[in-house]
């Protein structure tokens, strides 16, 4: 199709769709490629293959009809709908559509379009237009030599107030983290925004961009071997606006979802390859749907996302649970404690090497907005880096005030973290805080904290062995489990609901919160009881109602949340015949049990024993002043007591810096 025929066809299209194309903003009119394709297929193909040659003429037609000054496109572009990884040289100079996440945004700068100059000697004004490859125009590009003198060598004074400028901004779009192939770096593309499109997006936004894919030379090379490619943007769509279409498709499966919601089998679909951990799996299901976010009239926000921390012995499936949640959630980002910094998790201001401008680059938590962040080896993070995520975990924002850039980015994500105890394995004789060694300000930001212990239980070990062997025999398939695609659709639909809190549920939550706050036996509590615990109960109750596909949070949802929180928060003491270590998978601490005697007596006897062991250790040191080191075996033979009890006391003394105990060797300080 030649240019004249294309202009005639486009004029005809405008006349028949004038009312539909009347834009809310006069700067740009958006044309749906699906409707244009139905009107004239050849015209749509011509626009896709030769956009730079026809768009300037089309914009002239709009100006003649007193319509918008610029044209943007939407709808499906067929094979030209791409992502940053699938772009290649065959799409240069064509109209394409890119989906991705904004990772970097530059400052908005004025770009000179026409300069005006005044010559005092001749008392005349001169002007000059500037056009480059980033402009969609009918005329060829011009040189960028700024005039300082006229043809008669008279000095020209620049009239900056009379010159014309256009707003100019660049952004980088990266392919979705969840769609990046394993082991490969995610790819990105630079997009150029002008005029009304500048400041239309920020880091962390998931968008669909329409524009012309063009290439430019690096520097002023006459024959360059490499080219810089950019996307000249003409329209931006937010992918969140497309969620309503997906919900309409999911609503067709509502009958199946209701059957699934009414059954407790839905929790077995969480990490089916992992045996046990029923309470943790239930908590993960609640985290996936989350609570309701509340935005107050004053602009403050109460988060609806649920944060979970897993702490325990090695080889207790903590990382596997994180990996399942990472692969299951449609929007999730994984990181590790040692491999992340504070700015890497939040945001950073960097310097653009080409232009020298400052750019704002998003971190993992900003990129995971409305999604999930999985942090493994959480205990390996430095204290300063952990402080950087305090704001994200509660206020769900990232505030930047660096290098003259002051802004606030959204980081509305759930945090699922896994950590090992400070001593490598969980010490049941130490308090929870001493085992974890995390500050109280951070622990209270987690709604649920689970401690998993690697206990020795022959029956349980036999069950785990059978489960693992069955998974290998069936090659990872389980006929009794719910299909993962169906469960993903169920979670997506449940997450879209917004149940309201009933008065009965609110009263039950308030009563439970008051009882926990008034509890006198707080030494067995996981963390201090703060008002954040009240919000935790509301979030868990709301998430439980979502899993039941209910529009109201009733008393049953509140009771389920209360039971889960009590099991997670309170360290129980049960009576049994002998004191022994037992496995507690879904509660917050170990249990010391003895039948027929109160728990306080058991605790007192344990303290007395530990005191006698400490006295014996220091008495032995006084009797052997020249001994700077001693093996655990020799010390046990010298003072008695069991090796297990002696090791526990030595670990406590080592933590208190009274001596050093490592690799079964005791080092005494002078």
From TrEMBL:
One of its GO terms (biological process) is DNA strand elongation involved in DNA replication. One of its GO terms (cellular component) is DNA replication preinitiation complex. Its EC number is 3.6.4.12. GO terms for molecular function: ATP binding; ATP hydrolysis activity; single-stranded DNA binding; single-stranded DNA helicase activity. It catalyses: ATP + H2O = ADP + phosphate + H(+). Coiled coil: none annotated. Residues 268-468 form the MCM C-terminal AAA(+) ATPase domain. Keywords: ATP-binding, DNA replication, DNA-binding, Helicase, Hydrolase, Nucleotide-binding, Nucleus. InterPro entries: AAA+_ATPase (IPR003593), MCM (IPR031327), Mcm3 (IPR008046), MCM_dom (IPR001208), MCM_lid (IPR041562), MCM_N (IPR027925), MCM_OB (IPR033762), NA-bd_OB-fold (IPR012340). It is found in: Nucleus. Component of the MCM2-7 complex. Acts as component of the MCM2-7 complex (MCM complex) which is the replicative helicase essential for 'once per cell cycle' DNA replication initiation and elongation in eukaryotic cells. The active ATPase sites in the MCM2-7 ring are formed through the interaction surfaces of two neighboring subunits such that a critical structure of a conserved arginine finger motif is provided in trans relative to the ATP-binding site of the Walker A box of the adjacent subunit. The six ATPase active sites, however, are likely to contribute differentially to the complex helicase activity. Belongs to the MCM family. This is DNA replication licensing factor MCM3. It comes from Vittaforma corneae (strain ATCC 50505) (Microsporidian parasite).
